[in-house]
TrEMBL record, chains A, B:
Residue ranges constituting the HTH tetR-type domain according to the UniProt record: 15-75
Positions of region (Disordered): 189-211
Keywords: DNA-binding, Transcription, Transcription regulation
GO MF annotations in UniProt: DNA-binding transcription factor activity; transcription cis-regulatory region binding
DNA-binding region: 38-57
Pfam family, one: TetR_N
Keyword Transcription regulation: yes
Keyword check for Transcription: yes
Annotated protein name in UniProt: TetR family transcriptional regulator
UniProt source species: Streptomyces dioscori
Upper classification of the organism: Bacteria, Bacillati, Actinomycetota, Actinomycetes, Kitasatosporales
Family annotation (InterPro entries): Homeodomain-like_sf, HTH-type_TetR-like_transc_reg, HTH_TetR, Tet_transcr_reg_TetR-rel_C_sf, TetR_C
Regions that span the bilayer: none
Amino acid sequence: MVDAQAQVRPGGRSAKVRAAVHHAVAQLLAEEPAEALTIPAVAARAGVHPTTVYRRWGSPAQLLGDVATSRFSGDVVVPDTGTLTGDLERWLGDVATDLADPDTLALMRAAIGSGPDGGCACIGDRHEQLSAIIERERSRGGRAPEMENAVDFLLGPLYYRAIFSAQPASSDWARELVATFLAAPATASAGEQPAGGLRPSTVELQGPASG
Amino acid sequence: MVDAQAQVRPGGRSAKVRAAVHHAVAQLLAEEPAEALTIPAVAARAGVHPTTVYRRWGSPAQLLGDVATSRFSGDVVVPDTGTLTGDLERWLGDVATDLADPDTLALMRAAIGSGPDGGCACIGDRHEQLSAIIERERSRGGRAPEMENAVDFLLGPLYYRAIFSAQPASSDWARELVATFLAAPATASAGEQPAGGLRPSTVELQGPASG
DNA sequence: AAATTATCGCACTGATCGTTGCGTTAGTGG
DNA sequence: CCACTAACGCAACGATCAGTGCGATAATTT
């Protein structure tokens, strides 16, 4: 990562340039396909000299990774509603709302296709947040689903729709997804077994569209 | 799509050039990041003149779309094991095996980030195949899950892991995913309600890795 | 407040990309 | 077997990109 902002000189000018470049990247991705994201184009949009972008970020891939990391960090907070269901519904709803923005979606799609770490920059925080929600529920003494399952059946469907569907999932759909995931009867015998399951027949799972 | 092969002159030379270019694209994507997929690079690898690639495909995005469409069509066949569980397990296992190939994965990641239709070329056939499996089960008189749910809870986790996880899901994991999805007790009262659910607590869902 | 130094803008150069016109090759049909 | 034409290779051109050295600016430190 470049992250020159926090390294040595976080002064006003560097920060302003960084913000302008980030904004330009998001703007360009929203307008044109990802392949049009060249350094000169970004620099021109940001009102910055191309040399600056070349020196600070090097390649479009690194620039994209930096923007994605910055954009997908801190924009969604972990709620504390008092219950696992409430936390998950609110959090996944916020994530879905975030992904519903076409600009954000374009950024994520572009980040997936470029860079060595793929789109990992887009979901790094999500896993930590989800893990925090599950951990909190366990600290309350409640039964929480396994992290593996929560990722597979909450983030999986949501991001699948976001990536491959023309119309991404809505916040309401995400909340219903949480309800569906948690609504399955705990077939486990021991109380140690985590809750969380799915009964797709009783809950209306019709999202906005699936492509 | 260009698809010049089936349009006017499917002669030996055109087909050979097309195959060479497709192979070169897959090869380059497996070696270098997607941004290095330039027309001259592809042409040089394929042993073809760049002008040819420019004329037939125009842009790297269209070329990628053509390659993805070709690669993700026909490589997985819809099985007929006699049961819904068997069909789904075999089919999703095949899909997972296909996605486990790093070259295929790189192609899909690149296809997502480029082109107007995103990665739709990667999953167009998958939805039709899954729908065919469900339809067949219903024609047998059995209860099959809703297409929406099957996509969300089978393709969703599988593709999520493939895209965002360093180590994609294995064929065995995919089969367990099917078993888990279908294993939930049919909480519906009427027989008309589709089967398919999830009880993550009783089935080991540990995949190879999740990042 | 002055010195220091990281960062940016500018001008310049080489390299690669994208495109076009034209001749050649090789499938297709009579 | 011969005419026809689609597809390819070749060469050349302009345009854009990628990279470098140097001076100017501004944030940081003393």
